[in-house]
Write a structure and sequence with these properties.
This is Mismatched base pair and cruciform DNA recognition protein. InterPro entries: YjbJ_sf. This protein is mainly alpha-helical. The chain has one domain. It starts with a helix and ends with a helix. It is rod-shaped. It is built from three helices and no strands. Helix content is about 90%, strand content about 0%.
Length: about 100
């Protein structure tokens, strides 16, 4: 199964809740499991973000190549679609960039 930002956030939040409840009521096992689930969720979220960034990089590079080939060959359609794909790749990179 590929990593998911949504699933990662859910597990991270559930882990925080379990950790807090465990800490509040002295349930050290629950606290420990919550800490582990939070870490696993955070790891999944970061993996999904890295995957999205890599996909954006690929789209950006392929789009730039298509745009250049279209410009050199005079194929305006290829140049335009390449520019669109490059911009979409840039947007995907921005969306998945670590803040």
């Amino acid at each position: 199964m590929s990593p998911s930002k949504t699933s990662g956030q859910i597990h991270s939040t559930k882990g925080n809740v379990k950790e807090t409840v465990g800490s509040t009521f002295g349930a050290h096992g629950m606290e420990h499991r919550g800490r582990e689930e939070h870490a696993a969720g955070k790891t999944e979220y970061n993996a999904a973000r890295a995957k999205g960034y890599a996909e954006g990089t690929k789209d950006r590079a392929v789009g730039a190549k298509d745009s250049i080939v279209g410009a050199v060959s005079g194929d305006k359609s290829q140049q335009t679609s390449g520019n669109v794909q490059r911009r979409e790749g840039e947007a995907q990179q921005d969306f998945n960039r670590k803040i």
